[in-house]
Structures are given as C-alpha cells and as structure tokens.
Design a protein that fits this description.
7 helices; 192 residues; two-stranded antiparallel ribbon; CDP-diacylglycerol-glycerol-3-phosphate 3-phosphatidyltransferase activity; cell membrane; transferase; CDP-OH_P_trans; lipid metabolism
Length: 192
C-alpha cells in the first residue's frame, strides 16, 4: 500500500474516533472564548474532523505529485470523504446544530452522484472531481467546523457565519450535483 492510500485509510480510521467523541455523552465541560461557549467534546471533535479533512488534500497531493494514483485510492478516497462529511452532518442534526432537511439534501446528492459514478464506471468511464465538486467539499468542511465550534470566532459579533456557511454549502452541493448530472447526461441516453 502506497503512502497516499495509507493517508486515506487513516482518514477512514479517524471517522469512528470522531463519532465516538461526538456521540458518547462525555462531560468534559465547556469553555468560553470570544463570546462562544464551546463544549470541550465539540472542540475535540472539530480538531479530529479538521485533521481528517486535511488528509484529503494531503493524499491527493502526494498521489498526483509522485504518480501514485491507484484504483484502490480512486475507490477509497471519495468514499472516505463522503463517510466523514455524512457522519459529521448527521451528528450535527442530532446535536440540533443543523437543520435535518438541509442534511438530507446534502446526503441525497452524495448518493445520487455515487449512483451516477457507478453507471459511468460500468461503461468504462471515470468522472473525475471538477472544481465545483472541490468547492462543494470545502464549503461543507468549513460549515461543519463552524457549526461544531458554535460559530467561533464570530459569536462575539452575533453574526451567524456558521448558518451562512451551511447555506453556501447547500447551494454548492445542489449546484455541483446538477452540473455533474448535466455533464454526464449522455449516459442516460445510451442506456435506453
């Protein structure tokens, strides 16, 4: 297993750690900083989520730079991203930090695009992530981090950047999904 794949596997391994920290009712208290009251478990969860998210950039960078792209990596990397982000969003709904309907739309888009990728793969095509998809991923990561940190550092300003970031993530999620289906619309014409 090459280095990028090991980094991807480490991201998958961080998901249950993140889930455990966020879902088990540990009472580590809260701390206040710049007007934000952040439960320590949410802060620790945000750090774990941030580290896991950074591995996405790192593994891709090494895979491209050193020509270490493998079929295993092509399979596991997007799956790891979807598992990490979906886990975080579902936890945020359970913590009443994100509206359920927004999370349903985001996760439904991920299922739909994964289904389309399967159809494309069956025909021998590979649809690489485009810039809209990358923007979608990073807007989701930023929204999740701001929500986990209870709008820190903007809470002192009474400015809900966390919710604005969530709406931006929703818009890019829908836009990138629609774009993905539009760019690959020919696959449905061939299957008739």
């Amino acid at each position: 297993m090459n280095l990028p794949n090991k980094i991807t596997v480490s991201r998958v391994c961080l998901i249950p750690v993140f889930l455990l920290i966020m879902a088990v009712p540990f009472d580590w208290g809260t701390f206040e900083w710049l007007g934000a009251k952040i439960p320590v478990t949410h802060f620790v969860g945000a750090v774990i989520f941030a580290i896991a998210s950074m591995t996405d950039w790192i593994d891709g960078h090494y895979a491209r730079k050193y020509n270490l792209v493998t079929n295993f990596g092509k399979f596991l990397d997007p799956l790891a991203d979807k598992l990490l982000v979906s886990t975080a969003f579902i936890l945020l709904v359970g913590l009443k930090l994100a509206p359920a309907w927004i999370v349903v739309v985001i996760i439904a888009r991920e299922f739909a695009v994964t289904g389309l990728r399967l159809i494309l793969a069956e025909g021998g095509e590979v649809a690489a992530a485009n810039m809209l998809g990358k923007i979608k991923t990073w807007t989701q990561i930023i929204a999740i981090l701001l929500l986990l940190l209870h709008n820190f550092p903007f809470s002192a300003l009474s400015f809900r950047l966390d919710l604005i970031a969530l709406w931006v993530a929703l818009i890019f999620t829908i836009w990138s999904g629609a774009d993905y289906f539009y760019l690959n619309r020919g696959v449905f014409a061939r299957s008739k």
